[in-house]
Write a structure and sequence with these properties.
9-stranded mixed beta sheet, single chain, alpha/beta
Length: 316
């Protein structure tokens, strides 16, 4: 682990975060890295700063300086926690690591999460991917359509990326692995609980499954992380398939509308007349597909509306 990567973990992770310790949230970290880049300061250098350095070099006030000092004081405890999780098969990557997913850096720029906890081979994230999203309440027809569509995109050389939830997400990832390809899952809750399943462990060990989470490994579900996860799926993908969506509610609908408004990849949607949400998404601009679709996502080009901000030296 390089010095800047460890510095990001100390400053941004919620490991060992006590009452008087306030880690930097993603938006705060972006603002801080802008200040550091403007002054040609590396993150790890902050830990050798004096109070005068913080004032003269970064114009920090007393509260800002004290916040950094408190975060730095937990470095020993964090090192212990990192080792503990590593023994469980859970590791940490930061934007300062060269194996951080390139697709996220390219499409999201500075809005990328500074930290991911992960299990599996991070090199999987460099594969071409198609996202699969949809309801947790999948019936036999939803499963059939998902499995058949995964087979088609696998045949075109694509892996699956999903949110790892019960239903469409898990069905798609499992189908890809069963086909001899791989799956990537951006989950929104406990990574510790996720890797308790024997099937999951086997897929991780065999380098067929990569699981990532922006939340610390023992965290429960949060809406904020779930909404972030939706954007990560679309950013990781060359195209995302919506199998089943409610109308005007739920994470699948919100994520799809967000990608239609500010596209990170092509948006495909099962043209199923029984699902009002699907039909409305197609009316909003999603590409209608059915059982005859050949799984070719690259023929559809997206129009980039709001390009991400330029990366800083800490992101490359």
């Amino acid at each position: 682990m390089n010095k800047n990567s460890m510095a990001i973990i100390i400053l941004c992770s919620h490991l060992c975060a006590g009452e008087n310790v306030k880690p930097f949230e993603p938006a705060e970290w972006t603002r801080l890295t802008d200040r550091l880049a403007d002054n040609k300061i590396q993150p790890h250098e902050l830990f050798s700063f004096t109070h005068d350095d913080f004032k003269s070099k970064l114009d920090f006030n007393a509260d800002e300086t004290e916040r950094i000092k408190r975060l730095a004081d937990r470095s020993g405890s964090i090192t212990f926690e990192v080792e503990k999780y590593a023994n469980m098969g859970i590791h940490i990557m930061t934007k300062a690591d060269d194996f951080y997913p390139n697709a996220l850096k390219k499409k999201l720029g500075k809005s990328c999460p500074p930290i991911f906890y992960y299990a599996g081979n991070p090199g999987i994230a460099d594969k071409k991917c198609v996202g699969f999203v949809g309801s947790r309440n999948a019936d036999i027809n939803d499963e059939k359509f998902t499995v058949e569509t995964v087979a088609k995109i696998n045949a075109n050389g694509f892996a699956v990326v999903s949110g790892g939830a019960k239903g469409i997400d898990s069905i798609a990832a499992a189908a890809s692995i069963e086909n001899g390809n791989v799956g990537i899952e951006y989950i929104s809750d406990s990574l510790i609980n996720k890797i308790k399943s024997k099937n999951i462990i086997n897929s991780v060990i065999s380098h067929r499954l990569l699981i990532l989470s922006a939340a610390k490994p023992d965290a429960g579900f949060t809406t904020g992380i779930a909404m972030m996860r939706n954007k990560l799926i679309y950013a990781q993908s060359d195209g995302t398939v919506i199998v089943k969506s409610d109308f005007n509610k739920g994470g699948t609908w919100i994520g799809a509308v967000g990608n239609l408004n500010k596209p990170l990849c092509a948006t495909f949607c099962w043209n199923n007349a029984d699902y009002q949400g699907n039909i409305e998404l197609i009316n909003l601009g999603a590409i209608a597909i059915d059982q005859t679709w050949n799984g070719d996502v690259l023929k559809y080009k997206i129009e980039k509306k709001d390009p991400p901000e330029q990366l800083t030296l800490f992101d490359v």
